Amino acid sequence: MNILAFEGTAHTASVAIVKKGKIVTNLKHSYTTQQPTGMVPREVAEHHASHLKDLTLQALKQANVSMREIDVLAYSAGPGLGAALQVINSFVTALSIKHNLLLYPIHHSFAHLIVANYIAKAKDPLYIYVSGGNTQLIMLKDNLHPVVYGETEDIALGNALDKLARELGYGFPGGKHIEDAAKKADKFIEMPYTVKGMDLSYAGLVTFASKLKDKETKENIAYGFQEHAFAMLMEVAERALAYTEKEEVVLTGGVALNSRLQEMLKSMAEERGIKYLKLEPQYLGDNAAMIGVAAWHFHLHGIEPLKSEEAFTKPRWRIEKHLEW
Ligand SMILES: Nc1ncnc2c1ncn2[C@@H]1O[C@H](COP(=O)(O)OP(=O)(O)OP(=O)(O)O)[C@@H](O)[C@H]1O
Ligand SMILES: [Mg+2]
Question: At the top level of CATH, which class does the domain 2-112+283-321 belong to?
Answer without folding.
Answer: alpha beta
